[in-house]
Amino acid sequence: MHRTRRGSYRCLVALCAVSLFVPIDVTQRGVSGPEELWVNGLEDAAVNQEHEPMQTADNIQWEPSSFQPSSAFSGADLGTVVADSYRGPGNNDRRINKELPILLWWSENLFPHFPGDTERIDCPFSSCLVTKDKRVKLHKRTKSIIFYGTDFRAYEAPLPRMPHQTWALFHEESPMNNYVLSHSPGIRLFNYTATFRRESDYPLTLQWLPTIGYLQNPAVSIAEKNRWRKSGYAPVLYMQSHCDVPSDRDRYVKELMKYLQIDSYGQCLKNRDLPNKRLEDTSTATTEDPEFMKFTARYKFHLAMENAICADYMTEKLWRPMHLGAIPVYRGSPSVRDWMPSNLSVILIEDFESPKEVAEFIMSLDSDDEKYLKYLEYKKPGGTTNKFLLSSMEKREWGVNDITAPNYLNGFECFVCDKENFRAGAEKMYKKSPKKTPVPEPHIAEYNHMGCPVPVPGFGTAAEIPESDR
Protein backbone atom coordinates (compact mmCIF):
# COMPACT_ATOMS: atom_id res chain seq x y z
CA MET A 1 0.00 0.00 0.00
CA HIS A 2 2.75 2.45 0.89
CA ARG A 3 4.68 1.61 -2.26
CA THR A 4 1.58 2.32 -4.29
CA ARG A 5 1.11 5.70 -2.68
CA ARG A 6 4.71 6.73 -3.34
CA GLY A 7 4.34 5.70 -6.97
CA SER A 8 1.17 7.73 -7.22
CA TYR A 9 2.90 10.81 -5.81
CA ARG A 10 5.72 10.44 -8.35
CA CYS A 11 3.15 10.34 -11.12
CA LEU A 12 1.46 13.47 -9.78
CA VAL A 13 4.76 15.33 -9.81
CA ALA A 14 5.25 14.34 -13.44
CA LEU A 15 1.71 15.46 -14.24
CA CYS A 16 2.40 18.88 -12.79
CA ALA A 17 5.34 19.12 -15.15
CA VAL A 18 3.07 18.26 -18.07
CA SER A 19 0.48 20.83 -16.98
CA LEU A 20 3.01 23.63 -16.55
CA PHE A 21 4.99 22.96 -19.73
CA VAL A 22 4.70 26.06 -21.92
CA PRO A 23 3.36 24.97 -25.32
CA ILE A 24 4.61 26.35 -28.60
CA ASP A 25 1.92 27.74 -30.89
CA VAL A 26 2.23 26.08 -34.28
CA THR A 27 -1.24 26.85 -35.52
CA GLN A 28 -0.03 29.64 -37.80
CA ARG A 29 3.41 28.58 -38.94
CA GLY A 30 2.83 24.81 -39.15
CA VAL A 31 5.49 22.15 -38.83
CA SER A 32 8.04 21.32 -41.47
CA GLY A 33 10.10 18.22 -41.95
CA PRO A 34 9.10 14.53 -41.99
CA GLU A 35 5.67 15.12 -40.41
CA GLU A 36 4.65 17.61 -43.09
CA LEU A 37 5.95 15.34 -45.83
CA TRP A 38 4.08 12.39 -44.35
CA VAL A 39 0.76 14.24 -44.19
CA ASN A 40 1.19 15.53 -47.75
CA GLY A 41 1.80 11.97 -48.88
CA LEU A 42 -1.22 10.81 -46.92
CA GLU A 43 -3.42 13.40 -48.64
CA ASP A 44 -2.11 12.51 -52.10
CA ALA A 45 -2.77 8.87 -51.33
CA ALA A 46 -6.46 9.49 -50.70
CA VAL A 47 -7.35 11.02 -54.07
CA ASN A 48 -9.28 7.95 -55.18
CA GLN A 49 -11.26 7.90 -51.93
CA GLU A 50 -12.63 11.44 -52.07
CA HIS A 51 -16.23 11.96 -53.19
CA GLU A 52 -16.78 8.32 -54.06
CA PRO A 53 -20.29 6.85 -53.55
CA MET A 54 -20.90 5.42 -50.10
CA GLN A 55 -20.03 1.74 -49.79
CA THR A 56 -22.53 -0.62 -48.19
CA ALA A 57 -22.33 -4.25 -47.18
CA ASP A 58 -24.36 -5.12 -50.28
CA ASN A 59 -22.05 -3.60 -52.85
CA ILE A 60 -18.64 -4.24 -51.30
CA GLN A 61 -16.66 -6.96 -53.06
CA TRP A 62 -14.97 -8.95 -50.34
CA GLU A 63 -11.62 -9.44 -52.04
CA PRO A 64 -8.39 -9.88 -50.05
CA SER A 65 -6.92 -6.74 -51.60
CA SER A 66 -9.63 -4.56 -50.08
CA PHE A 67 -8.40 -5.54 -46.62
CA GLN A 68 -4.72 -5.10 -47.39
CA PRO A 69 -4.11 -1.41 -48.15
CA SER A 70 -0.49 -0.47 -48.63
CA SER A 71 1.20 1.88 -46.23
CA ALA A 72 0.21 5.52 -46.52
CA PHE A 73 3.79 6.22 -47.50
CA SER A 74 3.30 4.46 -50.84
CA GLY A 75 0.25 6.42 -51.88
CA ALA A 76 -2.44 3.79 -51.36
CA ASP A 77 -6.13 4.29 -50.73
CA LEU A 78 -6.82 4.89 -47.03
CA GLY A 79 -9.78 2.53 -47.06
CA THR A 80 -13.47 3.21 -46.37
CA VAL A 81 -14.96 -0.07 -45.18
CA VAL A 82 -14.88 0.71 -41.46
CA ALA A 83 -15.76 4.37 -41.86
CA ASP A 84 -18.71 3.98 -44.17
CA SER A 85 -20.19 1.21 -42.05
CA TYR A 86 -21.42 3.76 -39.51
CA ARG A 87 -21.75 7.06 -41.38
CA GLY A 88 -24.30 9.16 -39.52
CA PRO A 89 -27.46 10.42 -41.22
CA GLY A 90 -26.54 13.99 -40.23
CA ASN A 91 -23.09 13.88 -41.84
CA ASN A 92 -22.98 16.09 -44.92
CA ASP A 93 -19.22 16.54 -44.72
CA ARG A 94 -17.84 16.46 -48.26
CA ARG A 95 -14.37 17.83 -47.57
CA ILE A 96 -11.44 16.13 -49.20
CA ASN A 97 -8.93 14.38 -46.95
CA LYS A 98 -6.40 17.21 -46.97
CA GLU A 99 -9.03 19.44 -45.35
CA LEU A 100 -9.94 17.07 -42.52
CA PRO A 101 -8.65 17.25 -38.94
CA ILE A 102 -6.42 14.38 -37.80
CA LEU A 103 -6.97 12.34 -34.63
CA LEU A 104 -3.96 10.43 -33.29
CA TRP A 105 -4.39 7.23 -31.26
CA TRP A 106 -1.39 7.39 -28.91
CA SER A 107 -1.84 3.78 -27.76
CA GLU A 108 -1.44 2.16 -31.14
CA ASN A 109 -2.51 -1.28 -29.92
CA LEU A 110 -5.96 0.17 -29.31
CA PHE A 111 -6.27 1.62 -32.83
CA PRO A 112 -9.73 0.33 -33.85
CA HIS A 113 -9.03 -0.18 -37.55
CA PHE A 114 -7.49 -3.14 -39.31
CA PRO A 115 -5.10 -3.53 -40.99
CA GLY A 116 -4.00 -0.04 -42.02
CA ASP A 117 -2.31 2.78 -40.12
CA THR A 118 -4.73 5.50 -41.17
CA GLU A 119 -8.45 5.71 -41.93
CA ARG A 120 -10.99 8.29 -42.92
CA ILE A 121 -13.96 8.10 -40.57
CA ASP A 122 -17.37 9.50 -41.45
CA CYS A 123 -19.17 10.09 -38.17
CA PRO A 124 -22.69 11.19 -37.21
CA PHE A 125 -22.06 14.85 -38.03
CA SER A 126 -18.59 15.23 -39.56
CA SER A 127 -15.48 13.46 -40.83
CA CYS A 128 -11.84 13.10 -39.74
CA LEU A 129 -8.68 11.19 -40.48
CA VAL A 130 -7.54 8.86 -37.69
CA THR A 131 -4.06 7.40 -37.43
CA LYS A 132 -1.71 5.60 -35.07
CA ASP A 133 1.42 7.07 -36.65
CA LYS A 134 3.00 9.27 -33.97
CA ARG A 135 4.98 11.28 -36.47
CA VAL A 136 1.97 13.56 -36.85
CA LYS A 137 1.87 14.44 -33.13
CA LEU A 138 3.00 18.06 -33.67
CA HIS A 139 1.30 18.68 -36.98
CA LYS A 140 -1.04 21.65 -37.27
CA ARG A 141 -3.93 19.46 -38.45
CA THR A 142 -3.59 16.94 -35.63
CA LYS A 143 -6.39 18.31 -33.50
CA SER A 144 -6.71 15.65 -30.80
CA ILE A 145 -4.66 12.84 -29.28
CA ILE A 146 -6.54 9.87 -27.83
CA PHE A 147 -4.90 8.05 -24.91
CA TYR A 148 -5.69 4.71 -23.29
CA GLY A 149 -5.74 5.17 -19.52
CA THR A 150 -3.96 1.94 -18.60
CA ASP A 151 -1.01 2.87 -20.83
CA PHE A 152 -0.88 6.59 -20.01
CA ARG A 153 2.33 7.74 -18.32
CA ALA A 154 3.09 11.41 -17.78
CA TYR A 155 6.76 10.94 -18.65
CA GLU A 156 5.75 9.48 -22.04
CA ALA A 157 3.28 12.23 -22.90
CA PRO A 158 3.82 14.02 -26.23
CA LEU A 159 5.43 17.32 -25.34
CA PRO A 160 5.30 20.18 -25.92
CA ARG A 161 1.53 20.10 -25.69
CA MET A 162 0.21 22.03 -28.65
CA PRO A 163 -2.32 24.80 -27.96
CA HIS A 164 -4.40 23.71 -30.96
CA GLN A 165 -4.70 20.12 -29.67
CA THR A 166 -7.07 18.51 -27.21
CA TRP A 167 -6.36 15.33 -25.28
CA ALA A 168 -8.96 12.57 -25.00
CA LEU A 169 -8.96 9.72 -22.48
CA PHE A 170 -10.42 6.26 -23.07
CA HIS A 171 -10.35 4.16 -19.92
CA GLU A 172 -12.94 1.49 -19.22
CA GLU A 173 -11.05 0.09 -16.22
CA SER A 174 -11.03 1.20 -12.59
CA PRO A 175 -8.28 3.53 -11.28
CA MET A 176 -6.48 0.44 -9.97
CA ASN A 177 -4.85 0.28 -13.42
CA ASN A 178 -3.61 3.87 -13.17
CA TYR A 179 -4.20 5.60 -9.84
CA VAL A 180 -3.17 9.02 -11.10
CA LEU A 181 -6.36 9.29 -13.15
CA SER A 182 -8.41 9.29 -9.96
CA HIS A 183 -6.79 12.58 -8.88
CA SER A 184 -7.98 15.95 -10.18
CA PRO A 185 -4.54 16.99 -11.57
CA GLY A 186 -4.48 13.76 -13.56
CA ILE A 187 -7.97 13.72 -15.02
CA ARG A 188 -7.95 17.45 -15.77
CA LEU A 189 -5.16 16.96 -18.29
CA PHE A 190 -7.87 15.69 -20.61
CA ASN A 191 -10.58 17.47 -22.53
CA TYR A 192 -12.79 14.51 -23.42
CA THR A 193 -13.34 11.28 -21.50
CA ALA A 194 -14.85 7.85 -22.03
CA THR A 195 -14.91 6.03 -18.69
CA PHE A 196 -17.19 3.87 -16.55
CA ARG A 197 -18.66 6.96 -14.86
CA ARG A 198 -22.00 8.23 -16.14
CA GLU A 199 -20.64 11.77 -15.75
CA SER A 200 -17.92 11.22 -18.35
CA ASP A 201 -18.37 12.69 -21.81
CA TYR A 202 -18.89 9.31 -23.44
CA PRO A 203 -20.05 6.92 -20.68
CA LEU A 204 -19.05 3.25 -20.79
CA THR A 205 -21.05 2.34 -17.69
CA LEU A 206 -22.90 -0.58 -19.26
CA GLN A 207 -19.91 -1.91 -21.19
CA TRP A 208 -20.40 -5.43 -19.82
CA LEU A 209 -24.12 -5.61 -20.59
CA PRO A 210 -24.63 -6.46 -24.28
CA THR A 211 -28.43 -6.27 -24.26
CA ILE A 212 -31.39 -6.51 -21.90
CA GLY A 213 -31.96 -9.94 -23.41
CA TYR A 214 -28.61 -11.02 -21.97
CA LEU A 215 -30.19 -10.80 -18.51
CA GLN A 216 -33.22 -12.83 -19.57
CA ASN A 217 -31.24 -15.94 -20.43
CA PRO A 218 -33.05 -18.91 -18.79
CA ALA A 219 -31.68 -20.01 -15.44
CA VAL A 220 -30.83 -23.55 -14.40
CA SER A 221 -33.88 -24.99 -12.64
CA ILE A 222 -34.03 -24.76 -8.87
CA ALA A 223 -34.42 -28.55 -8.77
CA GLU A 224 -31.08 -29.04 -10.53
CA LYS A 225 -29.41 -26.46 -8.29
CA ASN A 226 -30.67 -28.30 -5.23
CA ARG A 227 -29.39 -31.62 -6.58
CA TRP A 228 -26.02 -29.91 -7.13
CA ARG A 229 -26.03 -28.81 -3.50
CA LYS A 230 -26.83 -32.30 -2.24
CA SER A 231 -23.96 -33.75 -4.27
CA GLY A 232 -21.50 -31.85 -2.07
CA TYR A 233 -21.11 -28.44 -3.68
CA ALA A 234 -21.36 -25.19 -1.75
CA PRO A 235 -24.21 -22.73 -2.32
CA VAL A 236 -21.71 -19.99 -3.16
CA LEU A 237 -19.02 -19.75 -5.85
CA TYR A 238 -15.94 -17.51 -5.70
CA MET A 239 -13.72 -17.24 -8.76
CA GLN A 240 -10.81 -14.82 -8.55
CA SER A 241 -7.18 -15.02 -9.60
CA HIS A 242 -6.32 -11.33 -9.15
CA CYS A 243 -5.62 -11.18 -5.44
CA ASP A 244 -5.01 -8.42 -2.89
CA VAL A 245 -6.75 -5.63 -4.79
CA PRO A 246 -7.76 -2.22 -3.35
CA SER A 247 -11.33 -3.33 -2.59
CA ASP A 248 -9.96 -5.82 -0.02
CA ARG A 249 -12.29 -8.50 -1.36
CA ASP A 250 -10.15 -11.49 -0.44
CA ARG A 251 -10.03 -10.55 3.23
CA TYR A 252 -13.81 -10.15 3.21
CA VAL A 253 -14.32 -13.55 1.57
CA LYS A 254 -11.91 -15.17 4.02
CA GLU A 255 -14.02 -13.84 6.87
CA LEU A 256 -17.24 -14.92 5.15
CA MET A 257 -15.87 -18.46 4.87
CA LYS A 258 -15.97 -18.73 8.66
CA TYR A 259 -19.77 -18.73 8.54
CA LEU A 260 -20.63 -20.13 5.11
CA GLN A 261 -19.50 -22.87 2.74
CA ILE A 262 -17.88 -21.31 -0.35
CA ASP A 263 -16.27 -23.09 -3.28
CA SER A 264 -13.28 -21.01 -4.41
CA TYR A 265 -11.71 -22.04 -7.73
CA GLY A 266 -9.39 -19.18 -8.62
CA GLN A 267 -5.90 -18.52 -7.32
CA CYS A 268 -7.30 -16.36 -4.51
CA LEU A 269 -8.32 -18.48 -1.50
CA LYS A 270 -8.55 -21.57 -3.70
CA ASN A 271 -10.07 -24.57 -1.93
CA ARG A 272 -11.40 -26.63 -4.82
CA ASP A 273 -10.33 -27.71 -8.31
CA LEU A 274 -12.37 -27.16 -11.45
CA PRO A 275 -13.58 -30.37 -13.13
CA ASN A 276 -10.76 -30.44 -15.69
CA LYS A 277 -7.40 -28.81 -16.30
CA ARG A 278 -8.59 -26.87 -19.33
CA LEU A 279 -10.95 -24.86 -17.17
CA GLU A 280 -8.14 -24.09 -14.78
CA ASP A 281 -6.77 -21.74 -17.41
CA THR A 282 -7.47 -18.24 -16.11
CA SER A 283 -8.21 -16.97 -19.61
CA THR A 284 -10.96 -19.58 -19.95
CA ALA A 285 -12.42 -18.59 -16.60
CA THR A 286 -12.66 -14.96 -17.64
CA THR A 287 -14.40 -15.61 -20.95
CA GLU A 288 -17.81 -17.06 -21.65
CA ASP A 289 -16.55 -20.54 -22.42
CA PRO A 290 -19.63 -22.79 -22.78
CA GLU A 291 -18.31 -25.54 -20.50
CA PHE A 292 -17.24 -23.03 -17.86
CA MET A 293 -20.58 -21.23 -18.04
CA LYS A 294 -22.54 -24.47 -17.72
CA PHE A 295 -20.51 -25.48 -14.69
CA THR A 296 -20.83 -22.17 -12.82
CA ALA A 297 -24.54 -21.76 -13.66
CA ARG A 298 -25.38 -24.56 -11.21
CA TYR A 299 -24.34 -22.44 -8.24
CA LYS A 300 -27.11 -20.52 -6.53
CA PHE A 301 -24.93 -17.58 -5.54
CA HIS A 302 -21.80 -15.97 -6.99
CA LEU A 303 -19.58 -13.67 -4.98
CA ALA A 304 -19.30 -10.64 -7.27
CA MET A 305 -16.68 -8.25 -5.94
CA GLU A 306 -15.02 -5.54 -7.98
CA ASN A 307 -11.34 -4.69 -7.67
CA ALA A 308 -12.22 -1.12 -6.68
CA ILE A 309 -15.19 0.60 -5.08
CA CYS A 310 -16.18 3.30 -7.57
CA ALA A 311 -19.53 4.76 -8.56
CA ASP A 312 -20.82 3.11 -11.76
CA TYR A 313 -17.87 0.70 -12.03
CA MET A 314 -19.64 -2.59 -12.76
CA THR A 315 -18.01 -5.44 -14.65
CA GLU A 316 -18.76 -8.97 -15.80
CA LYS A 317 -18.48 -10.01 -12.15
CA LEU A 318 -21.96 -8.52 -11.69
CA TRP A 319 -23.65 -9.10 -15.02
CA ARG A 320 -22.46 -12.64 -15.78
CA PRO A 321 -24.05 -14.27 -12.70
CA MET A 322 -27.32 -12.57 -13.61
CA HIS A 323 -27.02 -13.89 -17.16
CA LEU A 324 -26.47 -17.39 -15.76
CA GLY A 325 -29.35 -17.17 -13.29
CA ALA A 326 -27.29 -17.00 -10.09
CA ILE A 327 -27.76 -14.31 -7.46
CA PRO A 328 -24.77 -11.96 -7.27
CA VAL A 329 -23.54 -11.22 -3.76
CA TYR A 330 -22.13 -7.87 -4.70
CA ARG A 331 -19.60 -5.41 -3.38
CA GLY A 332 -18.57 -2.66 -5.74
CA SER A 333 -20.32 0.35 -7.20
CA PRO A 334 -22.23 2.31 -4.52
CA SER A 335 -24.65 3.34 -7.27
CA VAL A 336 -25.40 -0.21 -8.43
CA ARG A 337 -29.08 0.03 -7.46
CA ASP A 338 -29.59 2.59 -10.22
CA TRP A 339 -28.76 -0.03 -12.82
CA MET A 340 -30.40 -3.22 -11.56
CA PRO A 341 -33.21 -4.74 -13.67
CA SER A 342 -35.58 -4.86 -10.70
CA ASN A 343 -35.67 -4.03 -7.02
CA LEU A 344 -34.92 -7.64 -6.10
CA SER A 345 -32.08 -9.04 -8.22
CA VAL A 346 -28.85 -8.75 -6.22
CA ILE A 347 -27.64 -9.10 -2.62
CA LEU A 348 -25.69 -6.00 -1.67
CA ILE A 349 -23.02 -6.53 0.96
CA GLU A 350 -23.25 -2.87 1.97
CA ASP A 351 -26.77 -3.56 3.31
CA PHE A 352 -25.37 -5.76 6.08
CA GLU A 353 -23.41 -4.92 9.20
CA SER A 354 -20.99 -7.83 8.98
CA PRO A 355 -19.92 -10.85 6.91
CA LYS A 356 -21.75 -13.03 9.44
CA GLU A 357 -25.05 -11.29 8.64
CA VAL A 358 -24.43 -11.77 4.92
CA ALA A 359 -23.83 -15.48 5.48
CA GLU A 360 -27.02 -15.85 7.50
CA PHE A 361 -29.09 -14.17 4.79
CA ILE A 362 -27.59 -16.33 2.03
CA MET A 363 -28.35 -19.49 4.03
CA SER A 364 -31.95 -18.35 4.54
CA LEU A 365 -32.44 -18.05 0.77
CA ASP A 366 -30.60 -21.32 0.13
CA SER A 367 -33.15 -23.15 2.26
CA ASP A 368 -36.23 -21.38 0.87
CA ASP A 369 -36.81 -21.91 -2.86
CA GLU A 370 -39.73 -19.48 -3.03
CA LYS A 371 -37.72 -16.60 -1.57
CA TYR A 372 -34.71 -17.50 -3.71
CA LEU A 373 -36.69 -17.45 -6.96
CA LYS A 374 -38.03 -13.97 -6.25
CA TYR A 375 -34.50 -12.72 -7.02
CA LEU A 376 -34.79 -14.18 -10.53
CA GLU A 377 -38.17 -12.74 -11.52
CA TYR A 378 -36.46 -10.14 -13.71
CA LYS A 379 -35.90 -12.98 -16.18
CA LYS A 380 -39.63 -13.33 -16.81
CA PRO A 381 -41.33 -11.41 -19.65
CA GLY A 382 -41.72 -7.84 -18.45
CA GLY A 383 -39.64 -8.60 -15.38
CA THR A 384 -37.07 -5.89 -16.11
CA THR A 385 -38.88 -2.91 -14.60
CA ASN A 386 -36.05 -0.41 -14.13
CA LYS A 387 -36.97 2.40 -16.53
CA PHE A 388 -33.59 4.09 -16.08
CA LEU A 389 -31.76 0.94 -17.18
CA LEU A 390 -34.09 0.39 -20.12
CA SER A 391 -33.76 4.02 -21.22
CA SER A 392 -29.97 3.98 -20.86
CA MET A 393 -29.67 0.88 -23.01
CA GLU A 394 -31.98 2.33 -25.64
CA LYS A 395 -30.05 5.62 -25.83
CA ARG A 396 -26.59 4.04 -25.80
CA GLU A 397 -24.66 5.19 -28.86
CA TRP A 398 -22.46 2.10 -29.12
CA GLY A 399 -23.05 -1.62 -29.05
CA VAL A 400 -21.48 -4.86 -27.84
CA ASN A 401 -21.23 -7.48 -30.60
CA ASP A 402 -23.85 -5.46 -32.48
CA ILE A 403 -23.37 -5.03 -36.23
CA THR A 404 -25.93 -2.20 -36.30
CA ALA A 405 -23.89 0.08 -34.01
CA PRO A 406 -20.22 1.04 -33.66
CA ASN A 407 -18.21 -0.51 -30.85
CA TYR A 408 -17.22 1.92 -28.11
CA LEU A 409 -13.74 2.55 -29.55
CA ASN A 410 -15.10 3.60 -32.94
CA GLY A 411 -17.90 5.44 -31.19
CA PHE A 412 -15.55 7.44 -28.99
CA GLU A 413 -13.26 8.46 -31.83
CA CYS A 414 -16.33 9.69 -33.70
CA PHE A 415 -17.44 11.58 -30.60
CA VAL A 416 -14.04 13.30 -30.51
CA CYS A 417 -14.15 13.91 -34.26
CA ASP A 418 -17.50 15.68 -34.08
CA LYS A 419 -16.40 17.71 -31.05
CA GLU A 420 -13.22 18.83 -32.80
CA ASN A 421 -15.05 19.86 -35.94
CA PHE A 422 -17.56 21.79 -33.86
CA ARG A 423 -14.71 23.46 -31.97
CA ALA A 424 -13.03 24.44 -35.23
CA GLY A 425 -16.27 25.97 -36.44
CA ALA A 426 -16.72 27.95 -33.22
CA GLU A 427 -13.14 29.26 -33.40
CA LYS A 428 -13.64 30.25 -37.03
CA MET A 429 -16.77 32.20 -36.15
CA TYR A 430 -14.95 33.97 -33.33
CA LYS A 431 -12.04 34.98 -35.57
CA LYS A 432 -14.48 36.25 -38.17
CA SER A 433 -16.52 38.30 -35.72
CA PRO A 434 -14.76 38.59 -32.33
CA LYS A 435 -17.00 41.40 -31.11
CA LYS A 436 -20.23 39.52 -31.76
CA THR A 437 -19.10 35.98 -31.00
CA PRO A 438 -18.00 34.78 -27.54
CA VAL A 439 -14.61 33.17 -27.11
CA PRO A 440 -15.01 29.36 -27.32
CA GLU A 441 -14.51 27.95 -23.83
CA PRO A 442 -12.23 24.90 -23.54
CA HIS A 443 -13.86 21.74 -22.30
CA ILE A 444 -11.94 20.22 -19.37
CA ALA A 445 -12.62 16.88 -17.69
CA GLU A 446 -13.76 16.96 -14.07
CA TYR A 447 -12.89 14.78 -11.09
CA ASN A 448 -16.21 12.93 -11.33
CA HIS A 449 -15.32 11.67 -14.81
CA MET A 450 -13.07 9.05 -13.20
CA GLY A 451 -12.67 9.76 -9.50
CA CYS A 452 -13.03 7.09 -6.84
CA PRO A 453 -12.82 7.40 -3.07
CA VAL A 454 -9.77 6.26 -1.14
CA PRO A 455 -9.89 2.46 -0.61
CA VAL A 456 -11.28 1.30 2.73
CA PRO A 457 -11.14 -2.10 4.46
CA GLY A 458 -13.57 -4.74 3.26
CA PHE A 459 -14.81 -4.97 6.84
CA GLY A 460 -13.70 -3.66 10.20
CA THR A 461 -11.13 -0.88 10.47
CA ALA A 462 -7.72 -0.26 8.93
CA ALA A 463 -6.13 -0.89 12.33
CA GLU A 464 -7.49 -4.45 12.24
CA ILE A 465 -5.77 -5.31 8.96
CA PRO A 466 -2.71 -7.51 9.59
CA GLU A 467 0.61 -5.82 8.87
CA SER A 468 1.35 -8.39 6.18
CA ASP A 469 -1.77 -7.32 4.24
CA ARG A 470 -1.11 -3.59 4.29
Task: Explain this structure.
Belongs to the glycosyltransferase 10 family. It catalyses: L-threonyl-[protein] + GDP-beta-L-fucose = 3-O-(alpha-L-fucosyl)-L-threonyl-[protein] + GDP + H(+); L-seryl-[protein] + GDP-beta-L-fucose = 3-O-(alpha-L-fucosyl)-L-seryl-[protein] + GDP + H(+). 29% of the residues lie in helices and 10% in strands. The chain has 470 residues and is α/β, with parallel strands linked by helices. It has two domains: 2-206 and 401-449, no CATH class; 212-392, Glycosyl transferase family 10, C-terminal domain (Rossmann fold). Strand 5 (166-171), helix 4 and strand 6 (192-195) form a beta-alpha-beta unit. Helix 7 crosses helix 12. The protein is elongated, with a radius of gyration of 25 Å.
Shape field: elongated
Mean pLDDT: 83
Got a strand count?
A: 11
Beginning-to-end CA distance, first to last residue: 6 Å
**Total number of helical segments?**
15
Biggest β-sheet description? 6 strands, mixed
Question: What key phrases describe this protein's structure?
Answer:
470 residues, alpha/beta, 29% helix, disordered N terminus
